[in-house]
Amino acid sequence: MTDTEHGDGPSDLDGMSIDRAVDIVDDDERNSSEVRETLAIVARDGTVRREAVDDALANASMVVTTAETRVELAAEKLDDARETADPVSDMALVSARTDDFEARLDRIEDRADDLGNAVQEVLAMKDEGDLYEIARRIKRVTNAASEVQRIADDFQLEIEAFGEWLADADRRAEELAGDVEALAESVNELDAIAETLAVGDEGPEGEAANRWAAAMVRHRVASLMIADLRAELAALRTWAERESERSPSDIEPRLDEVQASHEAVGERLVARAEPEWTARFDDRLTALDAELEAMEPPVAWAAVEAVVADHQPAVE
User: Fold this and answer.
1) In this structure, is residue 3 part of a structural domain?
2) Which residue spans adopt a coiled-coil conformation according to this UniProt entry (predicted)?
3) Number of helices and strands (H, E) in the chain?
4) Residue 32: what pLDDT?
5) Same domain membership, residue 197 and residue 137
6) Would you say 146 and 63 are in contact if contact means Cβ atoms under 8 Å apart?
7) Which of 17, 77, 245, 277 could join 159 via S-S bond, C-beta 3.0 to 4.6 A?
C-alpha cells in the first residue's frame, strides 16, 4: 500500500529512508526492487525528499523535449520527401507510401503531445501529491519519451530511405527484386510444409490439420503479394518511361517462376487435405478469401495482418 493508505498524508514519505519507504509502499502486488528503483527518483543520499522532485522533473522534461525535437525533425523530413514525391504523386505506388507516412507521423505526434500533458500533470501534484505516485509518473513519462524518441529516430531513417527510393530508379528496381526473392523463399517454405503433410497421418491433436490450415492462410496471402508485386512492377515501368530511364527487365520472368511455384504448391496443399480438414476450416478460409480479394494494390499490409488475425482458422 502507499503512504496515503496508512491514513497519514501524502507527505509521510518525505524525509524517510528509501528502505523504510519501500516497506511502507511495497505490498503483494508490487515488486520491491521496482518500488526501490522508483523511489530513488525522488530521493537524495538514500532519503526520499520532496525537494528532489524538481530535479527529477527537470530531467524528465529534458528527455521529453528531446523526444519532441526528434518528432519535429521527422515532420520536416517528411515535408521534404513529400516535395520530392510531388511530381509523381499521381501514381498510387507513391501516394500510398506518403499517405502511410503521414498517418504514422500523426500517431507519433499524438504520443509526443501526451508526453507534455503527462509532465503538466506531475507539475500540478509536485507540492502536495503522493511522492511514490509522483516518482511513478516521472518514471513512466521518461520511459515513454525514450520510446517516442526511438520511434521518431527510426521513422526518420525510413523517410530518408523513401527519399532515396524516390530519387533512384535502380534502387526501386533492386528493392522490388528483393521483395520477389523474399516471396520465393516463402513459397519454398510452403512447399516444404506441403511435403510433410501425408494423407491419413493426422498426428497428435490434429497437428497435420493445423499445419495445413496455417499453410493455406499463408498461400492466400502470397497470392495477394504476387498481385501487389506485379502492380508495382507495372508502376515502375510507367515511371521509367516518364523519366526516360531503363525499364526493369529481369524481374517479370522471375516473378513468373515464383507464381508458377506458388500455384503448384496450392495444388499440392489441396491434394493433401483430408475431407475433415476442409470441412473444419472451410468457413474461416472462405471468409479470409473474401476479405483479401477485396484488397487492391498497392496493398496496405498492416490491414492484411489485421484481416488474417480476424479470420485465420482457429486451431486446437
Assistant:
1) no
2) 64-125
3) 10, 2
4) 86
5) no
6) yes
7) 77
